Amino acid sequence: MTDDRFLKRTILKDSIDSSYLIEGKRNLRIYLPPGYNEVLSYPVIYCQDGEDFFNFGRIATSAQQLILDEGIEPFIIVGVDVDKSVRTEEYSPDGTRHQAYVDFFALELLPYIEGKYPVRQNADERVLAGDSLGGTVSLHIALQHPELFTRVMSMSGAFYEASQAIVAATGDLDWLTIFMIVGLQEEAFETDRGVYNFVQLNRDMHRLLQERNATIHYEEKDGKHQWGFWQKEVPQAIRYFIPQF
């Protein structure tokens, strides 16, 4: 049974206007840690697929447990929702809406959050998190804006050919720290672009990043391409980036 303390979370609904996104607006959900105080400052995790990360990944519940029981430094989570019908176009680097989404994230979302919530404003205290194509877009936001983002959490990243080609053409990545995990039962996962071996995609991306001197935590574990697997790995991924207080 889940401890009631972990369920007494503060999660705010918010939204941001955008001149880059076609719909002109994007819904957000904001997790504020126990003991939240606006005069303090906090590390921040930005989650793609915000609704899924909160509902299926249970990231806010994991955050409560880590902060209250393990002494992890309190942090804020920003979940950025997505319209699933255009998710691939926004998240994939060869998608028709990808650049607009990257611009929205760096030029509108970041200033909005930093103007409204007491998050720390240095790159090594911001984490980009995502599952599947959410992991992909997190990496590509960092690649385009290394002055803003240097830390990426990727759960079974969908590192298709376009992603690999971009990284292969990139220079030194010694500024990048990435947490990568993939499930061993993801060898033939059907996507909207065809059937892919996600284990091999992640092995290939791991090699490309390693060759460019990125700092990488890489694991392959029993698991399928679904939240039942990723949810269990969320606490470990958070511990990798957020120190004990």
UniProtKB/TrEMBL annotation:
It comes from the Bacteria. It holds the Pfam family Esterase. Gene3D superfamilies: alpha/beta hydrolase. This is Enterochelin esterase. The lineage of its organism: Bacteria, Bacillati, Bacillota, Bacilli, Bacillales.
